[in-house]
Amino acid sequence: MFSSLKTLKFTFINFNSSRRFCHEITDGIQVYSYRHKHKVPLVLKNPLYSSWYTCGPTVYDSAHIGHASTYVRLDIIQRILRNHFNINLVTCMNITNIDDKIIKRSHETGKNWKLLAEEYEAEFWEDLNKLNVQHPDIKLRVTDKIPEILEFIEEIENKEFTKIGTDGSVYFKTTCYRNYGKLHNVVLDDPSTAEFALWKAAKENEPYWESKYGKGRPGWHIECSTLASLIFGSQLDFHAGGIDLKFPHHENEEAQSCVYHNCGDWVQNWIHTGHLHLKGQSEKMSKSLKNTICIQDLLKEYSSDQFRMACLLSHYRSSIEFGPELMDTADKILKRLNSFKSDVKAFMNGLKVDGYIDEELLGSQFFECKKNVDLALKDDFHTAVCIGHVSELMKMTSKMINSTDNHLSSNSPAFDKVLLQSVLNYIDKLFSTFGISESNSSKETCDKVHIENVIDSIIKVRNDIRIRAKESKNKEMFIICDEIRSKMKENQIEIKDHGNLSSWTKIK
């Protein structure tokens, strides 16, 4: 994109100087500020786009559902900003493909570190696809930007914020940065203990790159500062990750980036998602604690929509207690959504003749729901509150559709059907905004529904009809049995009758 950080920095300065105002386009959106410890108005500096950087994975192993909850929740917020608030969001994510953990796993498995990282990165993107998480607009890998990282370090060194360790590693001197701890309120008895590596001297049998400091590789924190700066320059609107990254990773990023860019605040809005932990456990899900469930195993038991709905049912900054109760609740809401859509379509097609739409009541409830959903999303993206309001609207609407009061007219005016369709359109669009996919929301998992069990049930019902037909000598019932056998054969299932019993086989 740019030949160097200096070139990019110059470009951004020229662009910023041509802008004479701070353009607020957020219309009352409030986000939580870790600096102020309360919600503040969301203000975007650029009228053309909003910048978003997400800390990506360290690709040394399969991702687990703790990671999944972070990326799904961040995906939900990005979709809300784009599709509900119409903000032109440009997103970027890094891939950490060189790190202590990657090197350790390489030594343990005997697999080349680069091939190992490539394998798990490919798996990570496939996991995101299965979770219906939109890929970032821009993807950057650490090893592709080593020269830019070294240039970033040298600029910090020029400003006298570094020191060289005995092994040749380069460290950031937190004692020189007076605002250190503004995100985490960290108080250090010995500030020197918070010094962190910008460049790590190579050890024996480790991959390395040449530099003026000697052979080595980047520290963890410097990579995100460099890569985000390469794309977005001296200011980011959003920087996101799990709450476990707030300290030390994001604290260190902010410190070194403010020094590099000579600015008071590098990131305007830090977005941190709460931990996911298994029901009955207080610790976050972590590979080191061996309490993880990989994403592939999750999707064997639940659909991606069920997991996404589970994420929607709490505020993104809250922790998630993962277990059967939460997933059952998520599943019930999705089934309620599908049942509602089915009822509305049946009513619109004249299949529910007893229903009656109270235009005034439905219109009032619809208006209140839209207003409250908008307020909840403006209140730091509170999706759980939205689900509650929409559930109430669906409940009341379904009650009208399924009404059996004889004194109410079954011939609803055309306007009532327009109002009903507009309710359905709104709910469809809202859940689509949240990333709930219609094709997946009604999907049951293979473990829960076996096609053989469904066929067995159909055969049993048909067999019961045959027995009653024989007892009553009812020809019409026999005709129904023949029609079932014919339809099943069209779907490659052959039914054979054996007296009072029946069997079936798949037609090859």
From TrEMBL:
One Pfam family hit: tRNA-synt_1e
Domain tRNA synthetases class I catalytic: 51-330
Keywords on record: Aminoacyl-tRNA synthetase, ATP-binding, Ligase, Metal-binding, Nucleotide-binding, Protein biosynthesis, Zinc
Phosphoprotein in keyword set: no
Cofactor(s) this protein cannot do without: Zn(2+)
Catalytic reaction list: 2 L-cysteine = S-sulfanyl-L-cysteine + L-alanine; S-disulfanyl-L-cysteine + tRNA(Cys) + ATP = (S)-disulfanyl-L-cysteinyl-tRNA(Cys) + AMP + diphosphate; tRNA(Cys) + L-cysteine + ATP = L-cysteinyl-tRNA(Cys) + AMP + diphosphate; S-sulfanyl-L-cysteine + L-cysteine = S-disulfanyl-L-cysteine + L-alanine
EC number: 6.1.1.16
Claim: Aminoacyl-tRNA synthetase is one of the keywords in the record: yes
Entry GO terms, CC: cytoplasm
Taxonomic superkingdom: Eukaryota
GO molecular function, one term: cysteine-tRNA ligase activity
GO biological process, any: cysteinyl-tRNA aminoacylation
NCBIfam families on file: cysS (TIGR00435)
Functional summary from the UniProt entry: Mitochondrial cysteine-specific aminoacyl-tRNA synthetase that catalyzes the ATP-dependent ligation of cysteine to tRNA(Cys). In addition to its role as an aminoacyl-tRNA synthetase, has also cysteine persulfide synthase activity. Produces reactive persulfide species such as cysteine persulfide (CysSSH) from substrate cysteine and mediate direct incorporation of CysSSH into proteins during translations, resulting in protein persulfides and polysulfides. CysSSHs behave as potent antioxidants and cellular protectants.
Membership in a protein family: Belongs to the class-I aminoacyl-tRNA synthetase family.
Protein's UniProt name: cysteine--tRNA ligase
